[in-house]
């Protein structure tokens, strides 16, 4: 993978940690204090019983307004295929919820690139009328086939498909290889992809899942794909996720101490992030 082109860091969007509200948190109306110090929220409503989804969303919106929280809210009904709780065979049933989302309840609805062609035009129009943008996502839970260059080419083909639907933003989340050497090359390729996407979408997320993808969750937001996801409480929601409070300290230190210089390679960014994250973890 070629090195990252020279960049002016100060002109890139600031990282946005999306604190993840799980289905259990939503159903119990439990909003951790850490949530309101995040840069945004993901509502994982896929595990909430169908009749309760809109009521829990209404209650969250009321609390969000009470807290005067103005970060972006991403509404997610994740399929089991992609690591969620919504049955794959009932994918089309989600449309009733999307069409009923009231204005002001969320900023983006996460829709999968694999499903977008089958989603009704009336559903997409209802989202548009409600002022809710489409965050078009791709999740891969199997490591990519072939080497890092082949993976990079495959991710770009997925990005080409996303462009055809003119989304408000994009998300690419892929599992990296279990082999450390292969995973390192794939992580570098993901960073290169993030720089490419950042020039096209100001709302974007690129991350690697699994243990070897952890550092990409910290570096890609600094390369211009601002959205990243952090868990609240003690339990990660997806493989390789990091705690929101730790990520916040990481980005605070990165601002205070400075980023790698312009022209730093993808590998250099990963090494820098590993050293800084280690210091953040040890500081507690």
- DSSP strand (E) fraction? 15-25%
Reading off the top of the CATH hierarchy, the class is best stated as Alpha Beta
Strand order of the largest sheet: 7-6-5-4-3-2-1-8-9
Question: What is the rounded distance between the termini?
Answer: 35 Å
Number of domains: 1
Description:
It is a single chain. The chain is α/β, with parallel strands linked by helices and 284 residues long. It has one domain: Alpha-Beta Barrel (TIM Barrel), CATH 3.20.20.70. 37% of the residues lie in helices and 17% in strands. Helix 3 links the parallel strand 3 and strand 4 (108-112). The longest helix is centred in the middle third of the chain and has 19 residues, at 180-198.
Q: Quick recap of the structure?
A:
The protein is α/β, with parallel strands linked by helices and 284 residues long. Helices cover 37% and strands 17% of the residues. It has a 9-stranded parallel β-sheet with strand order 7-6-5-4-3-2-1-8-9.
Please tag this protein with its features:
TIM Barrel, 284 residues, 9 strands, alpha/beta, 9 helices, 9-stranded parallel beta sheet
List the helices and strands and how they pair.
Blueprint: E1 16-21, H1 23-27, E2 40-44, H2 53-66, E3 73-76, H3 94-100, E4 108-112, H4 121-129, E5 133-140, H5 148-163, E6 169-175, H6 180-198, E7 204-209, H7 216-219, E8 227-231, E9 242-243, H8 244-257, H9 266-283
Parallel strand pairs: 1-2, 1-8, 2-3, 3-4, 4-5, 5-6, 6-7, 8-9
């Amino acid at each position: 993978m070629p090195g990252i082109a020279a960049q002016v860091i100060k002109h890139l969007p600031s990282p946005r940690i999306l604190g993840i509200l799980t289905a259990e948190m939503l159903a119990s109306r439990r909003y951790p204090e850490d949530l309101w110090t995040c840069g945004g929220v993901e509502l994982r409503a896929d595990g909430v019983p169908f009749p309760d989804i809109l009521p829990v969303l209404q209650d969250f919106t009321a609390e969000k307004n009470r807290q005067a929280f103005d970060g972006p809210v991403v509404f997610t009904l994740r399929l089991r295929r992609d690591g969620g709780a919504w049955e794959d065979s009932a994918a089309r049933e989600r449309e009733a919820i999307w069409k009923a989302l009231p204005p002001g309840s969320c900023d983006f609805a996460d829709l999968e690139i694999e499903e977008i062609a089958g989603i009704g035009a009336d559903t997409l129009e209802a989202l548009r009328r409600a002022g809710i943008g489409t965050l078009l996502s791709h999740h891969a839970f199997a490591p990519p086939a072939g080497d890092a260059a082949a993976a990079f080419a495959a991710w770009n083909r997925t990005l080409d498909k996303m462009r055809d639907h003119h989304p408000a933003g994009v998300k690419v989340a892929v599992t990296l290889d279990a082999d450390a050497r292969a995973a390192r090359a794939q992580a570098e390729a993901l960073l290169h992809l993030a720089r490419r996407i950042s020039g096209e979408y100001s709302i974007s997320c690129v991350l690697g899942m699994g243990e070897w993808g952890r550092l990409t969750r910290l570096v890609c937001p600094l390369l211009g794909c601002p959205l990243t996801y952090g868990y609240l409480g003690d339990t990660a929601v997806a493989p390789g996720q990091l705690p929101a409070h730790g990520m916040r300290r990481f980005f605070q230190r990165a601002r205070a101490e400075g980023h790698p210089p312009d022209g730093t390679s993808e590998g250099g960014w990963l090494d820098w992030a590993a050293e800084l994250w280690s210091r953040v973890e040890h500081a507690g």
